[in-house]
Amino acid sequence: MDLDAVTKHSASHAKPDGLILQYGTAGFRTKADRLDHVMFRMGLLAVLRSKQTKSTIGVMVTASHNPEDDNGVKLVDPLGEMLAPSWEEHATRLANAEEQDLARALVAISEEAAVNLHQDAFVVIARDTRPSSEKLSESVIDGVTVLGGQFHDYGLLTTPQLHYMVCCRNTGGRYGEATIDGYFHKLSTAFAELSKQAFCSGGDQRTLKVDCANGIGALKLREMKQYLPQGLSVQLFNDGTSGKLNHFCGADFVKSHQKPPEGLEMKANERCCSFDGDADRIIYYYCDADGHFHLIDGDKIAMLISSFLKELLLEIGESLTVGVVQTAYANGSSTRYLEEVMKVPVYCTKTGVKHLHHKAQEFDLGVYFEANGHGTVLFSKAAETKIRQLAKELEDKKGKAAKMLENVIDLFNQATGDAISDMLVIEAILALKGLTIQQWDALYTDLPNRQLKVKVADREVISTTDAERQVVKPPGLQEAINDLVRKYKLSRAFVRPSGTEDVVRVYAEADSQENADSLAYEVSLAVFQQAGGVGERPQP
Ligand code: G16
């Protein structure tokens, strides 16, 4: 390691004095103008991780759902999954080292992680469409090259596409070809095969309106349109030609405000969906004939997908285990429906795809979705082998079901949640089952709920346990929440510090929207008073 060169180059990516950042729910996120040093250092770290794992590592420059002037970075591990927790600690340490300590921190990390410095390193980089992303990705490249790493810059990609590239490269192409054409080809082939029965049966062309959050999803979905079969027509809105990224649009806006995005005209009962800023989340919705807005979030997506998987397994006669993983944000009705009606085991983890992904790996078929629309399905190696074998061997109805399941394996991006891939899975299921969006929505009724954000001086004063459903600190806050929850029927509430924004998140559900709103407000006030609220007090 040429530490002198590192120190010299680092001077042009100097860390602002005293700035401390944490590797949060999905990497580092803050205002873009505070991130240059972090990008350079994550280039350095990616090289070390690549040497240590003898694999290609990914670096994605994005702040996903955050406002346009934020940015962020996350590292992608060898199989396309999120960075291992022990390396998140290394990342935080490296990002926060003062200039004069940087070389020492690099050496310490290399020693602790037993990195063979003579090993070659290869890093793949991509970025979203934020104005700040191009420059920041150049800083990543600077970090990679100063440590002698090789790299490939994919330029503009969705986050899940970069995860896919990493997985392809580290599996010798078995997962797919590590090019954008390879990605489009893999997904569109699986989609066409899976849905051919529905689309060939003479049905009308199906139209889906997609709000692309004015982000990278618009570019990539437009490129993909030519690969899609005739039966599905996607119409793009908020494609970035005029509006601002995530501004009054995108999956996060639609989910948290429970209203349609601006820039997308909805006729009654039309099927619509929203991607988030880097296209790793998807949310569906429609307006009924009376003008009421209906949101179909990650919980209902998980339900649709797991019931389809169970039906196929039943048809084949295979008793592979199906489990569903959710977070505390999952609507109480969804958990009840999955457990009591569908008889599927349901588990709750902390927020963050890395936690859900890890738990989902325990099943033959692990379905994981956050309510915000971030999720996918994981197939264990044994389950995948079995299904592919059955698809070859079985005939008639069983053989057909096994082949469909094989197509489902290929259509999901098993590296991480992927709005484009999830959209195609959902469109195929709806078409095959002949389900309208209203019928899908009607399978169970969500409990009214509300999500709010509270500004506090230091969000780390709140710590939680029990998959973030109980507050441990500050003392007294959980008791206050319990007292408030007791005032309402069918109620539940929790608070947790966000790992991507400088806020505390509040979630409440109850028997009516009025009560959910009122409970969320009262809990917000308790947070504001007991956890050092700043700025404007929460308003009813
Ligand atoms: C990221 C994570 C998600 C998480 C979301 C919000 O999403 O990947 O797992 O649900 O942040 O996290 P928090 O509540 O901690 O701010 P994205 O789409 O922004 O990358």
TrEMBL record:
Q: Which domain of life is it from?
A: Eukaryota
Pathway the protein contributes to: Nucleotide-sugar biosynthesis; UDP-N-acetyl-alpha-D-glucosamine biosynthesis; N-acetyl-alpha-D-glucosamine 1-phosphate from alpha-D-glucosamine 6-phosphate (route I): step 2/2
Per the database entry, which stretches of residues form a coiled coil? Answer: 380-407
Q: What's its job?
A: Catalyzes the conversion of GlcNAc-6-P into GlcNAc-1-P during the synthesis of uridine diphosphate/UDP-GlcNAc, a sugar nucleotide critical to multiple glycosylation pathways including protein N- and O-glycosylation.
Q: Which family does it belong to?
A: Belongs to the phosphohexose mutase family.
Provide one Gene Ontology biological process annotation: UDP-N-acetylglucosamine biosynthetic process
- The name this protein carries in UniProt is Phosphoacetylglucosamine mutase
Q: Where is the Alpha-D-phosphohexomutase alpha/beta/alpha domain?
A: 51-100, 113-166
A GO molecular function assigned to this protein is: phosphoacetylglucosamine mutase activity
Give the encoding gene's name.
PGM3
Q: Could you tell me which PROSITE patterns the record lists for this protein?
A: PGM_PMM
Q: Which UniProt keywords apply?
A: Acetylation, Carbohydrate metabolism, Coiled coil, Isomerase, Magnesium, Metal-binding, Phosphoprotein
**Which residue intervals define the domain Alpha-D-phosphohexomutase C-terminal in the entry?**
471-523
**UniProt keyword Kinase, yes or no:** no
Q: Which CDD domains match?
A: PGM3
